[in-house]
Amino acid sequence: MSRSRRHSLAVLRGRRRLDVEDHRAMTTANNNEASVRQVVSQLGIDVSRYDHVLALAGNPNTGKSTVFNALTGLRQHTGNWPGKTVTRAEGGFEHQGRRYKLVDLPGTYSLLSASQDEEIARDFLLFGRPDCTIVVVDATILERNLNLVFQVMEITTKVVVCVNLMDEARRKGLSVDVGRLSEDLGVPVVAAAARRGEGLTQLLDAVADVVSGAVQPMPRCPEPPPELREAIDELLPLLETLAPGVPNARWLAYRLLEGDHNVRQALLANRLPGVVAEQARQVQRASRKIALEGAQ
Fold first, then answer.
1. Pairing label, strands 98-104, 87-95
2. Do 17 and 142 reside in the same domain of the chain?
3. Which of 55, 77, 84, 179 could share a disulfide with 130, CB 3.0–4.6 Å?
4. 286, 81 in Cβ contact below 8 A?
5. Mean pLDDT, residues 128-136
6. Which residues of 227-256 are buried (b: 16+ CB within 10 A; e: fewer)?
7. What is the layout of strands, in order, in the sheet containing 189-191?
8. What is d(CA 263, CA 119) in angstroms, rounded to the nearest whole number?
9. What are 21-68's pLDDT values in tens digits?
């Protein structure tokens, strides 16, 4: 094991004696957050128009915006993410008698927080806790897009993969076995050509099944090397002790071992629970602001 990983483990072991009750008090709001819809309701926002909140993620140039526009039509509005210059788009639609709010996340190649867009997408998935996340991939370069799919599945199990641009794939003589891909990934996979309207009804059906619990995805992410798996298994209970109710301790453990400066500094300064709570509040404030603007 590398020196940095041993040091991270040593830091965590040394903090076992922290007062857990203090941490619990700092994260009460986060512990009570069952979904984005409940959080927005607690903020006094009228969300009667929406039964569920969805996230739309994907690499740039996968046709993600086309999927967003096809699903929401003119029922959409925009605003900025809190403290950022990055545009945030939200829209609504109805399917099978249920009303959905769709949040279009910035197009990113990963969730490693190397850029502002990646940080925004990661934080919304971690702290916004959407009821389902649609990950749009390009059928013509599928393998290249799977990196983001795996990273999203590390954060949430409620994932539906939309294999878009199937018309382009056919034109190039390519085919995608979505049934086999769904079996390999452990989540629903739907083929689509959004600009032609192909596959959108099937996509909405898959999302509805995941949201309702009729289908319970079981993501199959690549197994980490034994040494990394051992380190993760040792970190998890320590992180959960330091920050009770943290949305995804496994993801934070990965970030710590990969040398994420923000996570490490928060841990060393005993600020991890506060950082988690503050990031959650930022996501909530953005939802509140845009919801109010959209109602005007």
1. antiparallel
2. no
3. 55
4. yes
5. 92
6. ebeebbeebeebbeebbbbbbbbbbbbbbb
7. 76-80, 87-95, 98-104, 52-58, 132-138, 159-164, 189-191
8. 13
9. 444 434 443 444 444 444 444 322 234 578 899 999 999 999 999 999
Domain end, chosen from 149, 177, 212, is at 212
pLDDT at 275: 59
- Residue with structure tokens 């990969």? 258
Which residues constitute the domain of residue 283? 3-32+224-295
Structural domain includes residue 218: no
| Alpha-carbon span 20 to 239, nearest angstrom | 11
Tell me which amino acid residue 273 is. Answer: P
Residue with tokens 């990934």: 185
First to last CA, the chain: 56
- CA neighbor of 67 nearest in space, from 198, 185, 186: 198
| pLDDT higher than 60, residue 14 | no
Instruction: Copy the structure tokens of residue 130.
Output: 């959407």
190 closest CA partner among 154, 159, 144: 159
Residue 72's CB is within 10 A of a number of other CB atoms, namely 20
Number of structural domains, the chain? Answer: 2
Rg (CA), the chain: 20
Q: What is the pTM of this model?
A: 0.74
Residue type at position 290: I
Tokens of 51: 């039964």
Q: Which residues contact 260 (CB under 8 A, 6 or more apart)?
A: 113
User: Model confidence over 229-250: pLDDT tens digits?
Assistant: 888 888 888 887 777 766 677 8
